[in-house]
């Protein structure tokens, strides 16, 4: 997508704090902006309310009801349109903005979960929030989280924080301590993207985990007909291991009914993916859960 030169001028003027900016090569300008423009606009994006959250349901495989939803952040950039997290989370991590951004996501998601509970009355919906390893190193994380939950009036057990497997590789006490403190609060911790890193399986025991989220690469072979028998065996083994360690198993990236059925038979607990619903606005999730519960 190409930026109009008027946009570029305006953008540069803003980025330079109102100073005129002269440049001889407009094409180089476009490149420079796509590369560096996000860095300049990211710090103020939070104040300007440019972030929003989509929710994707997690579905219980046993009966198809909605268990909860994962909060996925998006950035509605004034010039570039909606950007996915892969386009700005690394930048937020490098600039330190991940801490206030992560706190904002957590607050929004927790208030949303509370709102769902009020609207629903029945099975309380839970909310999953992604946690960057940079947030884990932030000393006030545990206190902030406890505060956010208290302010919203959400019980800690309705929150699950997802930490990627790669973030915890070689995890030392500095990372494990806040995780344990969060778990002590009653918050669930899920190991995200499980199977993409190289975590020593016996290490899982040291971590205060409640769930494993299997990466979608596990289910690729289940789209074939017949399903790849080795893939089925691998998932069967992972589920057995997880359940031995008292961990629930969620599978992400489920795109077909065939995959869902295999996962159910293999004993996975919950699933998430386009087969059920794409990420969307919070009210749509509530509608889904009412339909499923009836
Ligand atoms: P993730 O935590 O592994 O989230 C799952 C990603 O898979 C999401 O991408 C989701 O939209 C996508 N997805 C869901 N169902 C399907 C499916 O059936 N097929 C396929 N192909 N994809 C599916 P998204 O929203 O682009 O998020 C990308 C990553 O950004 C997330 O991966 C997560 O690591 C990170 N992220 C998102 N929100 C936050 C946040 O608030 N904080 C932090 N630190 N990271 C976040
Ligand atoms: Ca996740
Ligand atoms: Ca994941
Ligand atoms: Ca993933």
UniProtKB/TrEMBL annotation:
Top-level lineage group:
Bacteria
Q: Which organism is it from?
A: Streptomyces pathocidini
In this protein, which residues make up the domain named EAL? Answer: 35-293
User: From which residue to which does the signal peptide run?
Assistant: none
Regions crossing the membrane: none
Which residue windows are coiled coil? none
* Name of protein: Bifunctional diguanylate cyclase/phosphodiesterase
Query: What lineage does UniProt assign to this protein's organism?
Result: Bacteria, Bacillati, Actinomycetota, Actinomycetes, Kitasatosporales
